[in-house]
Amino acid sequence: MASTQSKRRAAKVTCEDCYFHQNLLCALQLSEPCATFRPNDGQLRPAQQMRLVFRQERRTCSAWSFPTAQEQAALHA
User: Fold this and answer.
1) Over the stretch 40-70, which tens digit does the pLDDT of each residue have?
2) How high is the pLDDT of residue 74?
3) What is the pTM of this model?
4) Most exposed of 13, 21, 37, 56 (fewest Cβ within 10 Å)?
5) Cα-flanking dihedrals φ and ψ of residue 17, to 5°?
6) For residue 61, what is the DSSP state?
7) How far apart are CA 17 and CA 14, in angstroms?
8) Phi and psi of 18, rounded to 5°?
């Protein structure tokens, strides 16, 4: 069963399978599918975007900070 599923997934797509070609919206004359290829499954969906993952903040305190009012007064006294 796993081999039949992998064969279905490995089926080569053509420009004729594209949503834009099927709905006469494509103006390109290419021998292979372009970067805007979308499968024609009856609805147009945007391409899947990569997930944005934020890194954990490593520092717990800032590397520098402004002097306090008392420290500034002591510098200029």
Assistant:
1) 887 877 778 888 888 777 666 666 778 888 9
2) 92
3) 0.45
4) 56
5) -85, -5
6) S
7) 5
8) -80, 145
Instruction: Please calculate the CA angle 10-14-17 and round it to the nearest 5 degrees.
Output: 100
* Distance from C-alpha of 43 to C-alpha of 20, rounded to nearest angstrom: 11
CA dihedral sign, ordered 15, 21, 26, 28? positive
Query: 3-state DSSP call for residue 75?
Result: helix
Residue type, 72: Q
- Whole-number Cα distances in Å, 27 to 12, 23, 50, 56, 75: 21, 11, 28, 46, 71
Phi, psi angles (nearest 5°) of residue 39: -65, 145
Distance CA 32, CA 42 (A): 21
* String of DSSP letters for 29-41: --SS--TT--B-S
Rounded CA gap, 40 and 15, in Å?
Answer: 11
What is the distance between the alpha carbons of residues 61 and 47, in angstroms, rounded to a whole number?
40
